[in-house]
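re: that chain from earlier
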Amino acid sequence: MMQYRWAQMDLGSQMESPDFIRRYMDQAAKAGYNGIFLSLAGRVRTASFPYPPDGQCYTEDELRGLVDHARGLGLEVVPCVPTLGHVGQFLKFPQLAPLAEVQGEMKGRFGWGVRDSYCPTHPRLYEFLLPYLREVARIFPGPFFHVGLDEFWDYCLCPRCREKAPDLAGQAALFAEHVERLRQCLKECGKTMMMWSDMFEYYPEAQERISREVVLVDWQYQEDVRRYVHHLFDAFSEDRLALNGKMGFTTFIAPAEMTYRNGESYLACAQGKGVQGFINTCWLKYDTSLLRTLPTIIYNGYLLQGLAPAEATGRMMEQLFGTRDPLLASGVTLALTMGPPLHFKAWEKNALFSRDFRGLSTEEREEAATALEMLRQRCGLVQEGLGREILLDLMDAMEERTIVDDLREGIHAALDGRPLQEEALRQAQGRLACLLDRLAARWDRWRGGLSAWKNSFRENRERLLGGVSQALAELKECRFVRLRLCVPDGYVVEKVGVSLQFSPQGPWRRIFHGGAKPQDLNHALAEFFLPYRPQAGEGRPVAVKLEASGMGGVGFCHVLADGCAPRAIREVMGMVQNPEHLLVDNVNFAWAGSQSTREAYFHPAQAEAIHGVVLEVAPPEECGRP
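^ sequence. v structure.
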């Protein structure tokens, strides 16, 4: 049994009421956890950080009350405050905005102007940060304090940082210096510092420099963890758990509750590697629910006690639902293995108008429908309490999947040239409206006391329903460019641009610019249907321009502009390998950009460069078009 077994709550992205946090602690303690990991971000108002308004933060007294409740359950409470990236909740206040790395008209590494990272060379950073850490540390009596340090993408971009750290070695040294200042501050507070370790993938020299007193927390969120896979950088593998041990670091592992088997497989992967702790993370509940994934967290708690998976599932079912009914257990685990939908992503137009190269997944459609039916048949066994709320929310999660599946099936039938079944799509839209109303009512029951927090389902209702109406209108009124892509690494951060020309010397009209990659990281090939409305006087496209910029590159396989294929290459821009593959309708690809995310990450000019191809489009009569 691991010494440290902690369950997380991400209160930074979505506050929960103190009452619900106590209920969560109760369930975690029953499942064998001995710690609660609170990701707080800017939710703690103190003397040095007095800016958050009432209702958007916790008072010190509220947090001390939670610590007392946890102590009575045998739980340690561990705070986490981000200290380099993911600090937008601090930087949004004018008093702290000057501490951001991205200032003025600057763009971050992903081309955004979002201010989400501190500038580590700002002369006032530590004047704010260190006192704040001391104030938060005083609230929590336990020995650990986590300082984040994951995903600080906008690092060493400003002129001051570039002067102090002009090369990779300098950036690594600055990172290590930042870690050491935090560690020393927390050590003076009687705390052992913890941090996420993913940024050592990019700055391995920094890991060699830091004190071995720092506890490293490695995270892997794929369902089947067979190896440590890098985050963002070229997705290559290394045995980082073994590396941490060899270098003398204490290591924790951190799966997520997004799928049922992630924690189970990560535990198996970590066996024999000296891992001392387990943090079951759960992130970004700002427009979803912790209820629908709570069974996974409880299941992992029983796994951590050494129970076999079948018995751990049984104990989870008893604890939350008061029954081991096999059909209900199968419905719950099937739904959780699929992963409940998150953040309305399936409703975005890119998702509705794209699919895997081989088509839509009938297997996933059947799984969602089966899980929903099993839960509906057996939910009567659980009539009240937390278990009932979990089941209702899990059923709604599966119904959301079935609605999306029905919408996608109807949309793609129309995209493939079959008659548009508008009435069926309108019915799916009506089911979505009812679903959002139910979810909004559940939010009110669960989070209604959080007066300063908007009901995400009610706030997004009209946008989501309007998105379906827009998709229907575009199916009837628009023409489409069909683009096939190959993206072997789903973590690339590449922007794709598609433009059309309607006469040989005419202007270009851009119809798409944004991210385009497979929704499932296990698939490399995807097709996107990009709508455009014909304008007065426009005929068929005579040329199409495909562009890529960013980090990681993209493979352009084939393109059809209003059903017409390319017949010649007019121009190649930047780095493009094998552009001739675009003239053949298959899965071979013309690679645009560098194949290395790492190269572009450390060389912003390379990430900003445009790589692409201009293709002449065959006239309609050559393509069999009217």
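The CA atoms of residues 226 and 269 lie 6 Å apart.
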